[in-house]
Amino acid sequence: MVKPTLVTNSIRSRREEVGITQADLAGRIGVTRQTLIAIEQGKYSPTLELAFQIARAFGVGIDDLFQYPED
Fold first, then answer.
1. pTM of the predicted protein model
2. 10 Å Cβ neighbour count for 34?
3. Which residues pair with 9 in a beta bridge?
């Protein structure tokens, strides 16, 4: 079983806010829809490079989409 990541994100809500599908976003950042689903659900942490690509697709900073616990 894969251990969920501690990194959380608000990709889904941001994506729904701007009205794009998982397939659209996945195509923009060069990953499969399944990979994007895993990232949105917290089952997979994106690489730093991919996190930047996702943030740039929305025109925001990484901290606007990804959170890591302070503890």
1. 0.87
2. 11
3. 66
